[in-house]
Amino acid sequence: MPLTNLIPYLSISVAFLAMPLATAAAGEPRPHVEIRGVYGWDPTGLLEPGSLDELGLNAVFMSSRQVTTERVALLKQQGAKVYAEFNTMHVASFLEDNPDAAPIGIDGEVSPPPHGWQGICPSHEGYRQFRMDEFREVLSNFEIDGIWLDYHHSHASWERAEPAMPDTCFCERCIDQFEQQTKTKLPGLATPELARLLLGEHKETWVQWRCDLFTDWIREFRAILDETRPRALLGTYHCPWSDTDYDGALRDKLAIDLKAQAEYIDVFSIMPYHARFGHADDPAWISRQTAWLGQHLGIKGTPNERHRIWPIVQLSDWGETVPVDQVREVLDHGSRRPATGVMVFNWGSLRGQTDKVEEMAVYYREIRE
Predict the structure, then answer these.
(1) Using an 8 Å Cβ cutoff, are 127 and 94 in contact?
(2) How far is 68 from 24, CA to CA, in rounded Å?
(3) Which residues of the chain form CATH 3.20.20.80?
(4) What class is the 89-261 domain?
(5) Among 139, 159, 275, 301, whose Cα sits 20 to 30 Å from the Cα of 167?
């Protein structure tokens, strides 16, 4: 396909291709990288024959709400893997008819959505069934290569330099289940007093119970996938912090137990958005966080491992600007072992920034075998 047909999505300049070899060294072949992807709700510009090859892409990740039979077919005709992102704990519209699914804070009242990020009570059976039914429907209806869980954490806003993570959920349903499942007898106190007790004397038991509850969702997602589309991968987009960042908030606040989830998850897609998270001048933060994840889970980035790490890295501007001259460095750090794949966030806003698209395309084409 003539390259000009991809404009404005791609316009490789002669000057860029003539860059000195020393400048392009970070783009030398990396045979360990199996996935060179892009994430975007709308794959406009990626469906034309030849477009993925010119962009160096071999995988497209999109919202499950944007997946169609036609899009999957067109992408697969280009030899691409197609993965769907699935929203687990962030379907705020569910609360319109089910207000009892709103997370309850330490004061006994509905916890306001931090920075507008509305979470749902993880013990609400109706909401859980609603998400499981839709999960099964996506896997049944579309020949996707995998499905990635997203927003699978407690009611919080962590995708920023200064996160907001209120303690939740202290609804009667959660308290009752906690008592029954952990065999912990709690006194008949008002919610504020109970919350103080659970976050104090019973904190370790409470935190572990919450983590187990979120992990059990993943167990059920895995069972549905194995039954419906067993050859597909189960992935997760998750917070890029280590277990000590923000005083252990990954587990204590967000209820993410990565080691427990690893029993069911195939691919961990850490989300080290360096610019968004306060590391705009330090793209190496990406590979440091990925290295921690590999060490934490025992993933080395070698062939035939049970688990894989495919980071999703920030090239589009969100909060902080990602300059053009950072693109290759970001992708370099995102594709270092233990990572065996990398994807770009996000095509929706990036596709209009042709200079960044050019940089991404050349880098991706250089590292592929």
Answers:
(1) yes
(2) 37
(3) 89-261
(4) alpha beta
(5) 275
